[in-house]
Specification:
By secondary structure, the chain is α/β, with parallel strands linked by helices. It is 45% helix and 12% strand. A four-stranded mixed sheet has the order 1-3-2-4.
Amino acid sequence: MKIHPFAEKFPPIEGAEWDSFKASVKETKGNEQPIEYRLVKGKKELLDGRNRLRACEELKIKPKMRHVAIKDDKVKQFIIRRNINRRHLTAELRQELVADLRADGQSERQIAETLGVSNATIHRDLEACATNVAPEAVTGQD
């Protein structure tokens, strides 16, 4: 199954954390939270659950899957919402996400709301980004 490129920005679980995660999937005889995908030209595109899918594949357990209907312009926000509370964002990853959302035309305020951080943090992240290119248009107010 193809993984959405934006989902790839969140690094996979590794090391002892991976071993613990995989053991949890084994203990529950599968993934409790379904792996979410959308259909793109009739093919599954994974949006959330890459680690769950990998664990199920390694354990030879059929994963629970759920189809979600997400439009292209909402995919990034969907992926962020699914990952933001599960993972600790490094400053570098947060800056990368901020730059991507800004390039999509989101306002600093919208990005701050999506990531659950202050407007000042988003402003600093944009200043720190080497790819700080202003979008042609911004939706919402900064």
